[in-house]
């Protein structure tokens, strides 16, 4: 019985993938006003799936999406679908990329205490003249950035602000992540859920 339901869920997900170009009419995600709690929870779900090996390249396996949708909807009492959570995944990837680009620029650094990108005013002023969209990060805290590095970062350390979980003890209660010269301990996502 449970096997049939699981296969039905997979068929439903595959059908949604085939219709990916259009927005699902069953999703309430389009009108969702994402609260900080709602924003953090998908990150925890995604991170848990990464640590469980359910991400291949830049994509999660279908079973991972099924579980994440189920857990998210159960926690918040809503009817989001895979497309809605994938849109949030893409939004978070954009946020990660924006911050990474800033940190790759001379004069910008990561403030672990404030959980934000910092630079002298003249650096911000000069950069935002050319890239006005970056202004939003000038005073914006991004508390989950170290987790976004695990989700979207490169597998091999190659710079000041990249991280690697290649040698991490995934059975440990805590994971130690290195972001630049900062060592960050992250509680396993499965412990939070």
UniProtKB/TrEMBL annotation:
InterPro entries: Myb/SANT-like_dom (IPR024752)
Name of the protein described by the UniProt record: Myb/SANT-like domain-containing protein
Domain Myb/SANT-like: 33-127
